[in-house]
C-alpha cells in the first residue's frame, strides 16, 4: 500500500454532510472519523438512518463534500428491527456492557444481523478499489470482514470496537459466540479501546477457541490464519474542540449557566440517555451527598444533559422514566423557591454550547457503569480554564480511567463513594485542581483522535498481507 492509499470507512451510521451539525448527538464516532477521512479523500459507507421498502434498499446514494464521499443505503423496517434495535442494541450492547440481565437472545434477530452484514458486504464491495485500506467500525458489523473476504476482497481490513469486550465468563453466555469471534479473525487488525478489553479478547481466543496467542505482539493464530489485536485508546479532536472555546456560542452558553447558578458550584453530566452511563446511580450518589451534607444544599447545582437515544428499545424507555422519578424525588425533597438542586435536560446541544457549559461547571461528573472509552470526560477537561480548572469525577469502569488517573476515580455503584468524591471536589484547593488538570490535559491534548487514527492505520498498513 502506498502512503496515500484511500481510506474506506464502514460503520453502521454515516454522518452525511447536511446532518453533520448534529454530529455530537450521534456519539463520539462521527467527529472522529470525519477528520481521518478528510485527510485521505476517503469514502464512508453505512446506513442512512432511513427506513424504506425492501425493494429500494439496494440503492446506494452517494455525495461528496469537503473531500469526503459518503455512500449510504436505506434499511427495511424489518432490518432495523432485527439488526439494529434487535441484535446490535438488545443483545450485543447490553452483553458487552456487562448487563446480562438486559440482554435478549432471539434467533430471528441474529439472522437479521447476519443478513444486514451480508447486504453491507454486497453493496460496499463494488466501491472498494484494489489498494484501499478498509476500516470497519463497531459491534454492528463484527462479521463484515469475513463477508467481504468471501467476496474475494484481498485488501487490508481493520476493525475497531468502540465498546468494551466482556470477560470470557460473561461472553460465553452469547449463543453462537464462537461463530461470531471466528468471523472476527478474518480482519487483519482488531483494535480495542483499552488493554483490559484486549486482554479479555485474547483470553477468550486462547481458552475457548484454542487459538495460538502471543500476548506480547497481540497476534492470534487459528486455522493457519493470523490476525493482530491491540489497544488503541480513542481521543478527541483536540484542535477542533479547543478552538470552540473562542466561539460566541461557547461564550454565551458559559455565561448562561454561570449567571443562572450565581454563587453556587455547577456540577455537570452530559451523556446519551443510556443505562450504561450510570445515570440513576449518579442521582443516588447526589442524593446521598445532600443527605450527608444538608448544610451544603445551597452550594451545589447539578445539571444533567441527556438527550434520548434508541427510543425504540424498551430498556431505553424504562431508564427515562426512572431518571425523571429520581430527579423529581431529589428536587421534591430539597427545592426552595429560589433553588432547584437538579436540572435534568432531555435534549442535545452543539459542541460549542457544551464547551461553554463544561467551562462554567467546576465539577464534571462522568460515571458510567461500563464504557469503552468516554469522550465526555476528555471534552470536560479540554474545556477547563487552565488557571482555575474544575475537577473531573470519573468512573473507574470507563476506558478513559486507564489514561486519566488524576481524575477523582470512583466506583459508580457506590452512592457513598460518589458522595465523598463530590465533597472532595467541592473543597479541593486551586493548587491541587491545577496539578491534576495539568496531568490530565497532557493526555487529552496529546492522545487525540488524529493520533489514534494515524497509529491504527499505520499498524494496519504494516500487518502481513492477507
Ligand atoms: P458514546 O457511548 O456515544 O460513544 P461518548 O464517548 O461519551 O459515548 O461520546 C459521546 C459524544 O456525544 C461526545 O462527543 C459528547 O459530547 C456527545 N454528546 C453526549 N451527550 C450530548 C448532548 N446532550 N448533546 C450533544 N452532544 C452530546 C461510543 C462508546 C464510547 C466511546 C465512543 C468513541 O460507547 O465508550 O468513547 O463511542 O469511541
From TrEMBL:
It comes from the Bacteria. InterPro entries: Glyco_trans_20. It holds the Pfam family Glyco_transf_20. SUPFAM superfamilies: UDP-Glycosyltransferase/glycogen phosphorylase (SSF53756). GO terms for molecular function: alpha,alpha-trehalose-phosphate synthase (UDP-forming) activity. One of its GO terms (biological process) is trehalose biosynthetic process. Belongs to the glycosyltransferase 20 family. This is Trehalose-6-phosphate synthase.
Amino acid at each position: 500500500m502506498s502512503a496515500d492509499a484511500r481510506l474506506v470507512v464502514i460503520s453502521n451510521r454515516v454522518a452525511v454532510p447536511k446532518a453533520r451539525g448534529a454530529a455530537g448527538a450521534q456519539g463520539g464516532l462521527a467527529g472522529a472519523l470525519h477528520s481521518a477521512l478528510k485527510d485521505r479523500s476517503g469514502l464512508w459507507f453505512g446506513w442512512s438512518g432511513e427506513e424504506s421498502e425492501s425493494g429500494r434498499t439496494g440503492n446506494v446514494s452517494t455525495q461528496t463534500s469537503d473531500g469526503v464521499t459518503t455512500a449510504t443505503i436505506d434499511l427495511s423496517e424489518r432490518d432495523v428491527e432485527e439488526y439494529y434495535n434487535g441484535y446490535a442494541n438488545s443483545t450485543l450492547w447490553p452483553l458487552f456492557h456487562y448487563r446480562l440481565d438486559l440482554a435478549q437472545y432471539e434467533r430471528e434477530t441474529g439472522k437479521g444481523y447476519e443478513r444486514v452484514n451480508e447486504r453491507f458486504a454486497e453493496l460496499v464491495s463494488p466501491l472498494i478499489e484494489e489498494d484501499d485500506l478498509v476500516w470497519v467500525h463497531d459491534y454492528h458489523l463484527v462479521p463484515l470482514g469475513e463477508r467481504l473476504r468471501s467476496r474475494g476482497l484481498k485488501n487490508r481490513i481493520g476493525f475497531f470496537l468502540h465498546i468494551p469486550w466482556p470477560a470470557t465468563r460473561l461472553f460465553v453466555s452469547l449463543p453462537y459466540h464462537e461463530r461470531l469471534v471466528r468471523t472476527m479473525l478474518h480482519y487483519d487488525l482488531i483494535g480495542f479501546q483499552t488493554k483490559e478489553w484486549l486482554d479479555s479478547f485474547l483470553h477468550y481466543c486462547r481458552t475457548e477457541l484454542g487459538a495460538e496467542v502471543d500476548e506480547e505482539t497481540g497476534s492470534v493464530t487459528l486455522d493457519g490464519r493470523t490476525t493482530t489485536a491491540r489497544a488503541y485508546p480513542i481521543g478527541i479532536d483536540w484542535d477542533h474542540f479547543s478552538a470552540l472555546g473562542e466561539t460566541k456560542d461557547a461564550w454565551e452558553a458559559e455565561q448562561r449557566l454561570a449567571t443562572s447558578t450565581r454563587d453556587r458550584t455547577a456540577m455537570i453530566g452530559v451523556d446519551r440517555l443510556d443505562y450504561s452511563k450510570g445515570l440513576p446511580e449518579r442521582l443516588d450518589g447526589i442524593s446521598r451527598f445532600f443527605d450527608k451534607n444538608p448544610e451544603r444544599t445551597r452550594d451545589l447545582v447539578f445539571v444533567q444533559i441527556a438527550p434520548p437515544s434508541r427510543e425504540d428499545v424498551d430498556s431505553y424507555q424504562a431508564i427515562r422514566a426512572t431518571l425523571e422519578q429520581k430527579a423529581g424525588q431529589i428536587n421534591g425533597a430539597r427545592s426552595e423557591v429560589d433553588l432547584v438542586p437538579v436540572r435534568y435536560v432531555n435534549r442535545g446541544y452543539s459542541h460549542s454550547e457544551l464547551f461553554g457549559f463544561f467551562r462554567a461547571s467546576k465539577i464534571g461528573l462522568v460515571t458510567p457503569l461500563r464504557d469503552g472509552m468516554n469522550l465526555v470526560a476528555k471534552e470536560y477537561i479540554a474545556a477547563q480554564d487552565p488557571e482555575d480548572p474544575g475537577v473531573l469525577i470519573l468512573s473507574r469502569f470507563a476506558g478513559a480511567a486507564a489514561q486519566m488517573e488524576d481524575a477523582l476515580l470512583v466506583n459508580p455503584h457506590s452512592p457513598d463513594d460518589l458522595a465523598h468524591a463530590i465533597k472532595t471536589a467541592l473543597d479541593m484547593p486551586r493548587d491541587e485542581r491545577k496539578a491534576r488538570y495539568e496531568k490530565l490535559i497532557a493526555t487529552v491534548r496529546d492522545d487525540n483522535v488524529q493520533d489514534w487514527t494515524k497509529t491504527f492505520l499505520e499498524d494496519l498498513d504494516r500487518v502481513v498481507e492477507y
